[in-house]
Amino acid sequence: MDGKTSMTVADAVDYKGFPADKSKTGGWVPAALILGIEICERLSTMGIAVNLVTYLGGVMHLPSSSSANIVTDFMGTCFLLCLLGGFLADSFLGRYKTIAIFAIVQTLGTGMLAITTELPQLRPPPCHSRHDIDCVQANGFQMGILYLALYLIALGTGGLKSSVSGFGTDQFDEKDENEKTQMTFFFNRFFFFISIGTLTAVTVLVYIQDEVGRSLAYGICSISMLIAIVIFLSGTRRYRYKKSSGSPIVQIFQVIGAAIRKRKLNLPYDVNMLYEDSPEASRIHHSDQFRFLDKAAIVGEGDLECRSNYSGPNPWKLCSVTKVEEVKMMGRLLPIWATTIIFWTTYAQMITFSVEQASTMDRKIGHFQIPAGSLTVFFVAAILITLAVYDRLIMPLWKKWKGKPGFSSLQRIAIGLVLSTIGMGVASLAEMKRLSVAKSFGRSSTNLPISVFLLIPQFILVGAGEAFIYTGQLDFFITQSPKGMKTMSTGLFLTTLSLGFFVSSFLVSVIKKVTGSSGSQGWLADNINNGRLDCFYGLLAVLGIVNLVVYLICAVWYKPDQKAKCVVQMEVRFNGNGEEKC
Asked: What stretches pass through the bilayer (predicted)?
């Protein structure tokens, strides 16, 4: 009987609802099937995003600032919808159904985009240059169909990203030492495969878009996604499924609602008088921050009266100290969350204005011309190289010197912010050089005699910054969040990407309005040769410096309670260094 029990996973079931048998479910094979969906999602989303600005300008004849905003709004919506996908997965559908449904939605979106870019009725008449007087912009109907396709893709991406990593880790038993080690490698390979998918998108897919046809490239995205769905569904019998404990968003509103309801009550002199019904092993130590929320745990008149279904007190009126502390822990994450948004605003420039810059420069290597969107290959390469150097060189040296396995999550975030800020400063200098060539050679020219490799430093710096900040953020938001809110915490991390893109769109709109006048289009002109993109990059560098100072203050302020930290410690850390000891 004991042998049979050891072969099952305590908190997981198979596709029939029976306890999951370790020998028949879970492990690397099902996890690999799930990774296939993520690779194809990255291939589709990034293959579209990195080269969309050239399509909007060159084919739909939109101004550069409008094109950039459409791209950043699209990417921002992708990550913002992760919250919707996570909510549906936690509350109603479960991760398996969420992945399947939203993967189909994304497939429909990429298929529709392939048709949209193929039909001549859905794009304006071609012209020699979008800056020509007789060049007609896309009309409302044409843009409406394009938007519909793009936001179907965004909806699919949001639903997928919220559940893929979580469903992948569900295939491993954290209580089994062997499987726990395997889960460590899953996290590392998950990020590696995301980068591989992006690398393929910015090289092969972008080349097909520019040299063969966009409809073919987008059709490849749709077909690859369809194949990934079939492969994903083929593993249905082998997956492990974990039951949802409900949406943590509801718990947050319950604590806040209960605290507001009891706002006029005084807190007891002894915190032990506050309500607590959680098991001793899972309780979180009371903290003094956000004391207003403690009022949610004050036992009021009638709060402990028995309810007909014996389910305990009404959670909208009385919450346990542990549940209050879980909400406090999420609240402590918010300053760090807010100060990482500016990085993704900087990142947005790498797939918008930097691609616009590249399209005006000499991109030839011999007889081969590099597609403007493919220049982001240096960005992805910088990520992969930085991760390799950090894993194989920096971490061992740091462990010998400091006795710690690499930088802390907050330190990695700080390094990412520094690198991206320097990257924007370098980008400003590079643009000054490009504009000087444009001034002497002719601002109307679309092929300036200056090498595109001048832009490589800004791609490398921001790419290296992403390697640090992405892993640092993911590590921080997972390890410092309550156990029951890790899915939501991951979604919170992804919203920094979303808001970064939206902030970029907001800044572009504001700069366009403030610096433009009747006689000039300002910093962000329709033709970037007539603008001052260097000033815009310089502004982002200054904002980066200010944000870095605020971040350092927030990082010093953030001092999690050690007892609480022990309760929610991460058994398997993202960087693969095992259990974090208290």
From this structure: 74-93, 100-120, 140-160, 190-209, 215-235, 333-350, 370-390, 410-430, 450-470, 491-511, 536-558
